[in-house]
Amino acid sequence: MKIIRVATAEQGAEIAAELFVEAADSYPRDPVGLATGGTMAGVYRHLAKTGFTPRCSEAFALDEYFGIPDTHENSYANELNREFSKGLGWNGTIHTPGQGPYAGLHGPEKFEQTIQELGPLSVQLLGLGVNGHIAFNEPGSPFDSKTRVVDLEPSTIQANSVYFADPAEVPNQATSQGLATIAQAKKLILIVFGSAKQAALTKALHSPDETTPLAALNQHSNITLITYLET
Length: 231
Ligand code: F6R
Prior knowledge:
By secondary structure, this protein is of the alpha/beta class. Helices cover 33% and strands 17% of the residues. Helix 1 crosses helix 2 (38-50) and helix 2 (38-50) runs parallel beside helix 3. The chain is globular, with a radius of gyration of 16 Å. The chain binds fructose -6-phosphate (F6R).
């Protein structure tokens, strides 16, 4: 794993945006992999500032809350439409697990088939949860997992409630790419800011085991971690 130490989240988001552009432009026909949440919002802001527009026509989202429509203010489909598609003036398709053609019982399987058909992704953005989750692969998720519906841990629901007008509305399930799905991307950019994530990052790097989902990825041949936390 390559580690880039930065002084601030702002600087980290700028570097992440540069690495994303470089990776996406190296394989311009391959889809890109997107993540959501507070950390990624900064990366998308920097991407928009550079005037970058992806040359690919497809993107894949890492995850989505279960049971909320794509039009919901807090759906990840809506967030990516706002911050990535509209933010960058890009007209491509974002495939979001659990939404559109990927809703329903066979949706996760169909999403997985589509990513196999159109992938591998040139680059996948990743954040880390306070509890160490990657996408919504909570601690203990199998390293060979594929896209599926998962239960969210109470700590994840609590951490994500800050993004909802009514904290009681945070869904308790999500559809998430699996750790084996994520591992197929050509490049992984992991961005970890916030002292609340220090313990999870330290454990994943220094005592990796089945409770640290990052352990499924930290031997990836092209993974870069951008952080100001202690490593
Ligand atoms: C979201 C995702 C999550 C977040 C993580 C950190 O698509 O995959 O794993 O990256 O929960 O979220 P923030 O950046 O809001 O702290």
